[in-house]
Design brief:
Length: about 120
């Protein structure tokens, strides 16, 4: 069944379960309640100077920048990001997202196993 969620239904949570994450909020936009089978869609919002951990994992993911300015840091260097940019992060590639403005917001799509708030059968 098709599911539509309204923005007022999303629960925004400060990310406190990832070491070295700072000033990061996350909302799971599509997950278990909607019956997703393959991917999870999340929205992250980083405050000015906020950042995700410098990390890697064994799944690819896709990022779409909604608003603000930031950068992605990789082993090859950094790339500036702003609204409308799309980023592909391959499996096992070290990366970190860093905010350079208040309200740096992006969508992040990962396989179900990449979203710990989604229970696995």
């Amino acid at each position: 069944m098709i599911s539509v969620r309204k923005s007022e239904d999303f629960e925004k949570r400060e990310v406190t379960d990832l070491d070295e994450a700072e000033n990061v909020e996350k909302e799971v936009l599509l997950g278990d309640p909607e019956g997703v089978e393959t991917f999870a869609m999340r929205r992250f919002t980083l405050g000015n100077g906020g950042h995700t951990p410098y990390h890697y994992h064994n799944w690819e993911h896709e990022i779409y920048v909604l608003d603000g300015r930031g950068k992605i840091r990789t082993e090859q260097g950094g790339r500036e990001l702003s609204g409308g940019d799309a980023v592909y992060v391959p499996s096992n590639e070290k990366h970190q997202l860093v905010s350079e403005s208040e309200g740096f917001a992006f969508l992040c799509l990962v396989p179900r196993r990449g979203e710990p708030t989604i229970s696995e059968e």
